[in-house]
Specification:
heterodimer, A: 143 residues, five-stranded antiparallel β-sheet, three-stranded antiparallel β-sheet, 1 helix, B: 20% strand
Chain lengths: 143, 397
Amino acid sequence: MTTYEKPIPVRDELTEGYWRAAQQGVLVIQRCQDCHFYVHYPRELCPRCLGRNLAFQPVSGRGVVYSYTVMHAALLPGFGPDVPYLCAVVELDEQRGLRMLGNILNAAPGEISIGDPVRVTFVTVAEGVVLPQFLVDGQASGA
Amino acid sequence: MTNYLRGATAFIGLGKTAVSRQPEMTFGGLAVEASRRAIADAGLRPNDIDCLIAYTRPTEMHTQGMVDGLDRASVAYVQEGLGIETLRHHADVWGPGANAFAPSLLGAQAIHGGQARYVLVYAVLGRPLKRKFGELSAREWGGAAQFALPYGFGNNVQTIAVFARRYMHENGLSREDLWRAIANSRKWAMRNPDALLGEWLSYDDYMSARMIADPMSLYDCDMPVFGAWAFVIAAHDDAARAPKAPAYISAIQLGQGPRPTVWELWDDYTVMAPSYAGRDLWENAGVRPDEIDVAQIYDGFSPLIYYHLDAIGLTNGHDGPGFMRGILEGDQPFPVNTFGGSLGYGRAQGASHLYEAISQARGDAGDRQVADCDVSVATMGGFMVGATAVVTRERRT
């Protein structure tokens, strides 16, 4: 495998479960087992009820584009060849305000709008490193 | 709540260094030089100062290998540099959530609370010296960054881009409106010899500028600079005896928004922390919005002006874009960012906005002085950090 220049996630005690599930092609988000609130990024206490009963739980992987930017500059290592690339803020269907970041892989800059439906996909970028990413739904890509 | 600080204290001395793209002094040197000037402007000597409060922060948050005096300037470093023997009260404001107006509020509180008589506060800013802008010191990054950097998302310009995109979508803001925010700051920067971007920017030149993170182009971002700004604060009765006119502090307010460690994930991209710093501002300051003579509205990125105008309700029935159109096209002239703003003067993270607001209220703004200026307003912040300030020539109680 050629050298992967981009930053890769560093797992920690709180996020290990998230990245392990991604390796198996499953998007999981922490959910409070007491008040059923989804929590992202992972924490130890639920910020809504302050309980300690959080567990990773699979989600649908479907959502909409809340906002996005088209990057015309490579401000991080390894992104030069990707410019221009799409960075999206995705709101997952499970809960209002439940958001995550990702790139949209099957749309060119200019083809994306706020509110577009997206679904998760998984990309292996390095040995043991799998990133959840997004595809615009309902386009002809068939990806 | 009652604002017990209204009219209790005043700014009595100001000092600053020139701003520059490349460092002309270390952080410590800049802080001591600006402080020395502020103390002299207040008619005091360094050992009259009994409280020192710092805002010290590199442009980027990554702080490994930073050396006090070189890359930041702590109270300890500056106290020693000024030859101040002892302090009764002191604080360093820095790190995530550091707010450039916080030292002034803490200073006014210290005086009103009886912990100090003469407070010196300063802000010193610049880029980390040994690293290119935007460069990371590690390829791998943990914490919240593990969910952002792998996607090529890891710089404030991208965060403001996604906020602005959403604001434009919901509120009908256009790139022409963003240009007006820049044009207004540039218009005033042309009258300030200290400003680094004192040239007019035409709409055509703006629209053909290099895009960084759409809709943020090069000109929508302020320019990182090195510089320091210092302020001396005293009780109102000491201020009345100061050699130069004081600017009385009617209100300084801070605010922090939800999810302050991961603001890219917060709920509503059309509101930022300045809205929380703007709550009840006029009531607390004892002034009406129609009494404002001059306003320094934070413009570290061009869209921020519109968030701040929403936050303090200065537009008085107009929407933000209508307000800025009126300013630039002359049918509603109002002085905003009279020093050139961050977009024309350089990135001072709000310290220069407060500095200019005080200068205007003291009648000390030179060629840019607004005639008969009494009520002077400054705001700063973006994302999770916000602050507002009202200073006046006439003391309000």
